[in-house]
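Continuing from the previous page of notes. For each protein in this section, the sequence appears first, followed by its structure tokens. Read the first protein now.
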Amino acid sequence: MCEATAGDQTLPALTILLAAPRGFCAGVDRAIQIVELALARHGAPVYVRHEIVHNRYVVETLRAKGAIFVEDLDEIPDNERPVVFSAHGVAKSVRALAASRKLFSIDATCPLVTKVHLEARRQYAAGREVLLIGHAGHPEIVGTMGQLPPHAVHLIETIYDAQTVRPKDPERLAYTTQTTLAVDETKIIIGVLKTRFPRIVGPRADDICYATSNRQNAVKCIAPRCELLMVIGAPSSSNSLRLVEVAKRAGCPHAILVERARDIPWPSLSGISTVGLTAGASAPEILIEEIIDAFKARFDTRVEIVTTVVESLIFKLPRELQEQAKL
């Protein structure tokens, strides 16, 4: 193994396989822009219902600029101030409450989440029970289930749920999914549902978002070459947690989630020569750079970028902020 020296210290060699694509997706980038543009146009404070995206660095950065994050609209004391709905989407009841209070709301819901909402409403209007594949309690799931009346949606979290769900009418069923699931596991669940209910109706296109799929495919590409794969993301970030799971299933012996460089378990890296690095869809590139710098301080580091696809999708901003974006 080649080694370099830093002063009197010998640095062990390390290769970082940097996955591409990684980090921000179009929906996250749009949501953050919406909060920043709302602050630029209306001044502080701008209220945001729930974390705009699941990343502490992003939330703290926006908070420093004047964003105030709340979990309930009742926490907003001033009806004159804007409130931004997070990228995860909200239930109909939240929009109704905002309207009843005459709050000026700005919707930062990811367009791909909105697509799932519309699909669930369309299938329900067609007289079908809706099976929603996802994780209980996740804000996206709460928002999607909140598009329909209580008990109109069956939540399917696991293969076992798919094997045991008992709908009222097996002939009148539809399914849809959370956008940030593990692609391979979701395909298995859908397969079980289609076997049990041959007439079940699904969306015209995959509900799992392009960015989730692309990041998982990039991890599958580098995982077999890594002794350790590190995912930068928040513990509350569904797509980041799925990347850890995907890495392990793809052959990486050890995969972990970290939020910042300070969270790296350095003793566990002793003797390791190849590390994979990626970031969840709500983690900014500055955190990747921070971690690479931390590695360079401890290793003779070579970074190899492994690109599986180049992303170019951009989502339009809400009409009320498009002019502000031009300034």
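Done with the first. The second protein uses the same format. Note its length before scrolling.
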Amino acid sequence: MLRRLATEIAGLKLANPTMLAAGILGLTGASLRSVIDAGAGAVVTKSVGLKPREGYFNPTVVQVECGLLNAMGLPNPGIHHFAEEIREAKEGGVPVIVSVYGFSSEEFAEVATVAAKTDADALELNVSCPHVEKTGTEIGQNPQLVAEVVESVKSRVDKPVFIKLTPHVTSIAEVAKAAVDAGADAITAINTVRAMAINIETARPVLANKVGGLSGPAIKPIALRCVYEVYREVDVPVIGCGGITTWRDAVEFLLAGASAVQIGTAIALKGLGVFKSITRGMDTYLKNRNFRSVREIVGLSHRH
């Protein structure tokens, strides 16, 4: 991989600053390996909880003009049955970050402890799922609850802990600061945005859950603003997520303060080739402007 793209986040060495976002191709070791083979610098698994969960009935995903709308309901086999998938993904040779969720700070810590024992390189705490009650945004909108979750997990594991935040707050920077003060090693901004679609023929919501999370190009300006605000407030790496489909999008996020970017919906829209397309474009951008490392442009918009 091109040397100028190499970077480091919370002690994790990445050949390039692209990551697979949680929720896309992250449920099996084989699918994670396919993303690694496509050129991702790191991968994040699907969110996994303490117990198996079936998720919602179909339809759970619908394509809209500006992206994808989903309400999967956090389907997963449970962390105790997910260990083998993590081990298989680890064979790909890039950092494997396990996304975990829980319905209390203690449950987050219990899931994280099991994930850490399976040799996950880092943990990403999902306190921002917009469509499952009593977890996700109900925790992520409260700085005190976010801090409690981070403190609980950090007291039990010695792996880097990332926390994925929701945009549905008055001040995402305030929540990020609470997470960092509690020990978070990096901030991921953002998760999907609450949204819905209605079928005008049946007069019913399209998703079985009625409300889901919007991802894709429509939320990029929101995510970019959140990264910009969080970067000004915290002294840990920020990982940008939301609507990144081209190398130009990725560069924007880096200039706003992201040390890396996560890619999800773009895979559904463009295929796995999007990783190499983005990294090649970023490398050309850096080369043409005489930057020796991608780290030189992180947060550059704040210094201009």
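What the second structure shows: Residues 3-55+72-191+216-303 form a domain with the TIM Barrel fold (CATH 3.20.20.70). The radius of gyration is 18 Å. We return to this in next week's lecture.
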